[in-house]
Amino acid sequence: MKIKKATEGIVLFFFLMVGTEVESQTSGNINVSFTNRAMFSLEMDRSEVSFGLVAPEQAGPKEISGAVVAKVRSNTKWVLTAIANDDLRSTDNLANFIPIQQLEFKPQALSSEIDYQNIYRPFSKTEPTVVASGNPTPDEGVKIISDYRLRIAWQNAAGNYSVLITYSLSAVP
Question: Which of 34, 99, 134, 152 has the fewest Cβ atoms surrounding its Cβ within 10 A?
């Protein structure tokens, strides 16, 4: 009798320790959310371009290859534009000017993902001119290199001239 009770006690002890397997599971959910704002940045490699001394007797226009390099980073579709704030104004005599259309640019991109026209086009002082556009960029960004060309004519008054060109990077909806 003592063996039977001891065996029953061991079985009961084993049953209590192991228990019965329960086929149920409990879980909880966590919602993770955030807002990834449309972000873009524009870096220009310089703040000034100088053609130096130019003269109307030069054969053809004066060109500067790689005059400006713009680096674009964006996580959204983008467009890069440029606009002149005025004509080329003489710093010696503000009454003298050279029409801004005589200053031209030709962009090129180092990525096939960028849309641009690889032809010389004049700057405008009334409407922003599209330099390039594209989709979201890689982390390192994309470079748009612009050549500048200046055409000087005999009727342009002698003097020192300058103009401010503003490049703007905008998101495309």
Answer: 34
